[in-house]
Write a structure and sequence with these properties.
It contains 2 helices and 13 strands, in the order H-E-E-E-H-E-E-E-E-E-E-E-E-E-E. With 204 residues, it is mainly beta. A hairpin with a 2-residue loop joins strand 2 and strand 3.
Length: 204
């Protein structure tokens, strides 16, 4: 099974995200819009939290939902994907997410995995590059590929200006993007239900 397999692709079309610079439209991520437990359009426009059922999400798959008009990725990482984060630690510009983009890393997220310690395999990240607002594409397969280094461990590639991010959304050194991808505040209602945009302290 391809690790970039789309999730629930038959239910909705891909979310369209418009890049802030250059007028580039499109969402270049693996995964389809998850519609389960979505709030109303009016509530979403106001920034309401979004509940997501990830019970069908398999290891190596990524789903995309919309929150505050932005694509939010939910990636269920394999053990191999998690292990790759130690290999990229010295290659990324800000391994501990000390320089926030539009929001700081939530304090309950472990710094290397950038996820909650009790759900370390799940990465939740806003799919917007911190350079000029394009949406990076998934490049989960490790190894040499066009526009990627020979020791590529898997991650994300921004199609606009070539910024690369590891499987925790941390930007590589010497790339146009100045910060890591945002990790929004979130919490788990159960092992298979997540709320994005809200945690134990309230709404983001």
């Amino acid at each position: 099974m391809s690790i970039e397999k789309q999730v629930d692709s038959g239910r909705r079309g891909l979310l369209v995200a418009t890049c802030a610079a250059g007028g580039v439209a499109g969402l270049a991520t693996a995964g389809a819009l998850v519609s389960t437990f979505q709030p109303s359009e009016r509530a979403k426009a106001a920034g309401a939290p979004v509940e997501v059922d990830i019970s069908a999400l398999k290891e190596g798959e990524m789903a995309t939902v919309e929150w505050r008009g932005k694509p939010v990725w939910i990636l269920k990482r394999t053990p191999e994907m998690l292990a790759s984060l130690a290999k990229t630690e010295d290659k990324v510009a800000d391994p501990d997410s000390e320089k926030p983009y539009t929001m700081p890393l939530p304090e309950y997220c472990e710094k290397q995995s950038r996820s909650r310690k009790d759900h370390k395999e799940i990465l939740i990240a806003v799919g917007i590059c911190s350079h000029l607002g394009c949406s990076p594409g998934s490049k989960f397969q490790p190894g040499p590929q066009p526009s990627l280094p020979d020791d590529w461990q898997g991650g994300f590639l921004c199609p606009c200006h070539g910024s690369t991010f590891d499987l925790a959304g941390r930007v590589y050194k010497n790339k146009p993007a100045p910060q890591n991808l945002d990790v929004p505040r979130h919490m788990y209602l159960s092992d298979t239900k997540i709320v994005i945009g809200k945690d134990e302290k309230g709404e983001a």
